[in-house]
Amino acid sequence: MADSLTTLRKDLSVDQQLALRTAASRLLTEFAGTYGVETIERFLHTSYDQFASGSSVPNYLPLLAERFARQRLQALARVEGHHRDGRPVVLFLCTHNAGRSQLALGFFTHLAGEAAVAWSGGSEPGTGVNPAAVAAMAERGIDISTEYPKPWTDEVVRAADVVVTMGCGDACPVFPGTRYENWEIDDPAGRSVAEVRPIRDDVERRVRRLLDQLGVPVTR
């Protein structure tokens, strides 16, 4: 695998190539028996390319690519029937994946724990999560500072049992057989922490209601 990755990415520095080779090795171990080298490499490199053009922190790109590739491979495994654990999967979508969808993802993950799966994405991903949203969530003891804006992909949308859209309009993907909800929620972009708090609380109420509808127990 190392030789293949080196050959494929001559446009990268030695350190970036090494980081991608290490990421590919981890992914190959995680998905052993499900996906092989070619699929792992394809998902890893296309994930890398998703972030390369807009990132100001190139040394962080291999890690972002690995995280996104892992999510996409998990989604593909669900779509193809390789992995069905009975847990509901919810996808939160907004325009930049920097505010509303990250608030929803943070609450859902915090409240559901291991009982459900949540992902998020944007039609036009930004370059970072809204700092006011990060601060507002920190007030509730939820850390979303390590999250990052990312696009959605077909396999991620197809793997979701519920797709919640927030402001992405016609750009939001539609697949037959998937449950869709549209939440009319104010955009936190350009707002202070004080202004984001009521948006945060609105998102929490909606997430709690969705978890109740899905039959997911909430202990917090």
Tell me which CATH architecture of the largest domain applies here: 3-Layer(aba) Sandwich
Helix content: 40-55%
CATH superfamily of the largest domain: Response regulator
- Oligomeric state of shown chains: single chain
Termini gap? 44 Å
What strand order characterises the main sheet?
Answer: 2-1-3-4
Biggest β-sheet strands, sense, barrel:
4 strands, parallel
User: What's the total number of strands?
Assistant: 4
From the alpha carbons, calculate the radius of gyration and give it in angstroms: 18 Å
- CATH names the topology of the largest domain as Rossmann fold
Describe this structure in words.
The protein is α/β, with parallel strands linked by helices and 220 residues long. The chain is built from eight helices and four strands. The chain folds into two domains: 84 residues, Corynebacterium glutamicum thioredoxin-dependent arsenate reductase, N-terminal domain (Helicase, Ruva Protein, domain 3); 135 residues, 3-Layer(aba) Sandwich (Rossmann fold), CATH 3.40.50.2300. Strands 2-1-3-4 form a four-stranded parallel sheet. Helix 2 packs parallel to helix 4, helix 3 packs across helix 4 and helix 6 crosses helix 8. The mean pLDDT is 90. Keywords: Arsenical resistance. It comes from Micromonospora cathayae.
